[in-house]
Amino acid sequence: xxxxxxxxxxxxxxxxxxxxxxxxxxxxxLEQGQTLGIVGESGSGKSVCCYSLLGLIPRPPGRIxxxxxxxxxxxxxxxxxxxxxxxxxxxxAMIFQDPMTxxxxxxxxxxxxxxxxxxxxxxxxxxxxxxxIALLEEVGIRNPSQTIDCYPHxxxxxxxxxxxxxxALIAEPQLLIADEPTTALDVTVQRQILELIxxxxxxxxxxxxxxxxxxxxVAGIADxxxxxxxxxxxxxxxxxxxxxxxxxxxxxxxLAAIPRGAKSAADRSTNQDLxxxxxxxxxxxxxxxxxxxxxxxxNSVSFRLRRGEVLGLVGESGSGKSTLGRSIxxxxxxxxxxxxxxxxxxxxxxxxxxxxxRRRMQMIFQDPYASLNPRMTIYDTxxxxxxxxxxASKTDVDQQVLKLMDDVGLARAYIxxYPHxxxxxxxxxxxxxxxxxxxxxxxVADEPVSALDVTIQKQILELLLTLxxxxxxxxxxxxxxxxxxxHLCDRIMVMRAGQLLETAATELLWxxxxxxxxxxxxxxxxxxxxEAR
Length: 533
Hints:
The protein is of the alpha/beta class. It is built from 21 helices and 20 strands.
């Protein structure tokens, strides 16, 4: 008998614009010890489907229209709120996508860990604390007897995700729902988290629902796969038969969107250096518990970027990639060293001195929703830098904005909309449009596709390659996704703990990495669909 049996589940949201069907007649079953992968693009209904099982969709506007969800002999969809509270965190636990927004920033990790044991098991605080320390050690947290008293912000992204897994497993549930638990993690940390979930599944005989838009990750962890689009089930089946022989065109489209292999576009770089970085060092003063210390985020980094080149920069979170990119653009003041852009030294210039060069160098930030001004329309967002730098006048700015919309693949009718009215992929196109509005020669792209679906990611990568060719851009492309970097870049730099470990032509680095850390990154990459489980 299946542990979970979902039949004909339909969920809708009632809004001012009418009724939106988020989940439309979904059915699946899950055995104890089995992993079901649910894949699809953003907005396909993956998370809503699972959240509705635990009564986590807001009512109103959300409403379960029909269906049953039988779990251990009870229908979750018809349980009272009191009954669901006894199920949540006890019999069924959840790992949310962003641990920083899921963990309470005001409570120490230990307080948040012991709560389920005190609430669901009636344990004493001392006994619950001992069990929490043991579980933190099991999920790979170092020095758990000390770190249990830390706050969430004192952990790295990977460590916070491990804490979330510990919280989910503390009451020894029968079913674990993991909602995009590795989306924004480095390949090495991602691999550790996936191996941890798999190990705990085998050890505890857990049933797992793994929600993701990354098909490579799902192929490596799931037994069964359910593909969703627009709230509906497109197809379902065993992982390898579905990936080897997908029945539906949409599934084939998702698989085709996964970046694989070498860069297809020709290397347009010249022998002329546009950017020369020498012994660049950036330090931060850290005050922790009243004690001051120094963190060297970028440590004596040197490299060259040629005109027309796309140079990749890879490494784990905390390796100094973003700090290096911002230090080059003088958005963060370097402590020492030299950044020479087209023969002009940037280090030591103040904001006024940098202004004439800002037009020639731009940045695409990782999160367009945070970097776009929510109070400005798209027209104002794109027009502002052109008017500021004298590229457009008030008489021709309208036409220039419309051309820019065409360049980044956005409908001209959207120019009076605000950022919140766009999808994630569309917002990233707007951010790219703003970056190229000044017709720059050099762009720093900081993780611009890390949180996008594979199909949207493919569109953005193709757009970037087109713009590089059309506008003769040089680009420093920062990412932790090695498949993306291989698909886009001419050369790759590998960074760790603030230092550059090696630099090589992309395919040469793939074929013969010189440094052990690079070999670890490549072996950890989940970019290829495995032939066998």
